[in-house]
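hiii so um. not sure if this is the right channel but i have a protein structure encoded as tokens and i wanna go backwards to a sequence. like what aa goes where. can anyone help
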């Protein structure tokens, strides 16, 4: 079993670490035989493939996702993993006439590890996506297979891998094939950031910091006791607690130092804003910089 500890000594070290992770994942994939299963157990984590439907019909859509359940004290990563780590990778093999959207990521939590800050999930979490079936699909069964690779960490990290699959029969009764979002899809859907309607929003980089200021259309922050801001883009800002954050009524102001690993400032950022660890929103904000 491959393990390593968290370090962050610079961009070169980070790239070497990621390459090492990828090599470890590849070796695990090559050394394990494919599993035509919906569940798998791996060191420090269990994974399960779930589907929102029991059958399919041409011209319909549904949801499919992988549920991760780390051991207590262990975690996996968000799409932006923070100072260290690697987000899970799901590579789908689908029947002809079936397409799938990108993963819809639940909002993360901030996970301190020594002097570093990671972004991810300590508890059970679903990573799911919506799929679409073409009108002219004539198969009697559809296979959904996924090659999943992940990194699960405490203070040390262990790469893992599984190949899982589900087969759906063609529906005999197509009167109601709308997706049924029972558990675990209900919890996944409740944790998805929703679009935030705003009156105005701006992000400005100056003096080594990124500042976001926005005015929501409603009084989102009026009763809030805690507000957190996460950026989906990697290595734009540092990942520890914000240098400054304030909110009142419909206004939010947030400042964070720019990352020492930032190359070119992106033209926009997608901010995920979590209120009281219960509600989450996302918003794309154009970025300007001091001349």
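sure thing!! here u go:
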């Amino acid at each position: 079993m491959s393990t390593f500890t968290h370090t962050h000594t610079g961009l070169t070290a980070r790239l070497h670490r990621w390459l090492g992770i990828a090599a470890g994942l590849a070796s695990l994939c090559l050394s394990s035989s494919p599993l035509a299963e919906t569940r798998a157990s791996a060191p420090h984590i269990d994974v399960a493939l779930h589907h929102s439907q029991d059958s399919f019909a041409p011209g319909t859509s549904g949801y499919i996702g992988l549920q991760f359940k780390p051991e207590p004290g262990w975690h996996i990563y968000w799409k932006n993993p923070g100072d260290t780590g690697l987000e899970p990778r799901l590579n789908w093999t689908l029947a002809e006439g079936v397409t799938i959207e990108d993963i819809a990521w639940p909002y993360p939590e901030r996970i301190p590890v020594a002097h570093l800050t990671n972004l991810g999930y300590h508890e059970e979490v679903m990573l799911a996506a919506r799929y679409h079936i073409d009108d002219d699909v004539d198969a009697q069964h559809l296979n959904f297979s996924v090659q999943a690779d992940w990194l699960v960490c405490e203070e040390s990290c262990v790469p893992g891998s599984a190949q899982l699959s589900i087969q759906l029969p063609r529906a005999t009764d197509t009167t109601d094939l709308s997706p049924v979002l029972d558990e675990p899809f209900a919890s996944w859907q409740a944790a998805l950031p929703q679009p935030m309607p705003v009156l105005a929003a701006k992000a400005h980089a100056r003096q080594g910091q990124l500042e976001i200021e926005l005015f929501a259309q409603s009084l989102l922050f009026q009763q809030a006791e805690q507000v957190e801001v996460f950026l989906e883009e990697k290595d734009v800002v540092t990942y520890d607690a914000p240098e400054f954050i304030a909110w009142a009524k419909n206004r939010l102001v947030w400042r964070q130092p720019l990352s020492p690993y930032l190359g070119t400032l992106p033209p926009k950022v997608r901010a995920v804003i979590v209120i009281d660890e219960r509600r989450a929103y996302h918003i794309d904000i154009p970025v300007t910089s001091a001349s």
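oh and The two ends are 51 Å apart (CA to CA).
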